[in-house]
């Protein structure tokens, strides 16, 4: 009987992944999967690839399954181009993320204001303050007689705050930025929130640590581990996204790709954690993300695999 190609095995791996991801998966399913893994060392290769795609797309662990012992060597496979069946595997994993994780990854689903991919919007609040909402962003407004509160659920926004006796506060993740007559930018990126001030003063409070005050030309970031040190920034370079430009100065590659992803439909997935050591400096046109990706591929030791225009995988250069 002719030997099956690796692409057919990848399809089986996707089928197993979907089956074991189902909440109704049984011990018998897991035992059968273990038998499938043990039947051919190439099954472990395909399974690892599907699990890697899922982890990269969803940021979650693979289902609770038996892992093939390392003692079994895998025969080297010849190099081959990305084919329709590889696309089917990647698309299937992406669809799994779309169905299983969409609600969890859209915290601003019921926000007062939100923008789509590539969209920007300017808002004037009831107190006269202006908010410029970046692409793929969401916020809610809660003004009372005592305070003006805005919740940034996702994405990025630039605030130009009107004078008012009530304090103006922006809640983003587990921190609160309090305005003291200012203009500032707030950007959420994974678990980190970046705050940059172009005018006036803001106070940042997060966790149990001491608040940090930022002046014009200063920035700081906070995360669940606390507030980072103050950094100096050029106010002219803050919020360049409002002009359709994205500027980076020694920014980690995954952060840059995450920014670019917000300006295009689909996903850009980093397939190797070692790529987080690479940095990017430069300015890109937010409307030409494909050109930005091509520039990154030319200037950094990375390899881009374009499954479709909606799914780009980023590997270390071979």
From TrEMBL:
Residues 113-202 form the FecR protein domain. Residues 11-53 form the FecR N-terminal domain. Residues 246-304 form the Protein FecR C-terminal domain. GO terms for molecular function: sigma factor antagonist activity. InterPro entries: FecR, FecR_C, FecR_N, Ferrdict_sens_TM. It comes from the Bacteria. This is Uncharacterized protein. It comes from Sphingobium cloacae. The lineage of its organism: Bacteria, Pseudomonadati, Pseudomonadota, Alphaproteobacteria, Sphingomonadales.
């Amino acid at each position: 009987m002719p030997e099956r190609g690796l692409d057919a095995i990848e399809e089986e791996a996707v089928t197993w992944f979907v089956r074991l991801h189902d909440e109704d998966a049984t011990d018998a399913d897991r035992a059968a999967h273990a038998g499938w893994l043990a039947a051919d060392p190439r099954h472990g290769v395909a399974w690892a690839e599907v699990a890697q795609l899922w982890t990269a797309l969803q940021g979650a662990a693979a289902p609770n399954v038996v892992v093939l012992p390392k003692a079994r060597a895998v025969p080297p496979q010849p190099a081959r181009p990305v084919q329709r069946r590889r696309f089917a595997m990647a698309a299937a994993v992406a669809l799994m993320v779309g169905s299983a994780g969409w609600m969890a990854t859209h915290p601003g689903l019921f926000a007062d204001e939100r923008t789509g991919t590539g969209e920007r919007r300017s808002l004037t609040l009831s107190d006269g303050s202006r908010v410029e909402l970046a692409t793929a962003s969401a916020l809610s407004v809660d003004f009372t007689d005592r305070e003006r509160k805005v919740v940034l659920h996702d994405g990025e926004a630039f605030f130009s705050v009107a004078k008012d006796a009530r304090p103006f506060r922006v809640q983003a993740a587990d921190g609160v930025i309090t305005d003291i007559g200012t203009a500032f930018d707030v950007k959420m990126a994974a678990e980190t929130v970046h705050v940059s001030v172009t005018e006036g003063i803001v106070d940042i409070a997060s966790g149990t640590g001491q608040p940090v005050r930022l002046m014009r030309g200063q920035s700081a970031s906070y995360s669940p581990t606390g507030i980072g040190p103050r950094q100096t920034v050029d106010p002219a370079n803050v919020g360049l996204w409002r002009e359709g430009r994205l500027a980076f100065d020694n920014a980690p590659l995954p952060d840059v790709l995450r920014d670019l992803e917000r300006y295009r439909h689909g996903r850009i997935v980093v397939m190797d954690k070692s790529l987080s050591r690479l940095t990017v400096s430069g300015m890109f046109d937010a409307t030409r993300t494909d050109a930005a990706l091509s520039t990154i591929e030319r200037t950094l030791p990375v390899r881009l695999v374009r499954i479709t225009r909606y799914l780009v995988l980023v590997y270390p250069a071979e």
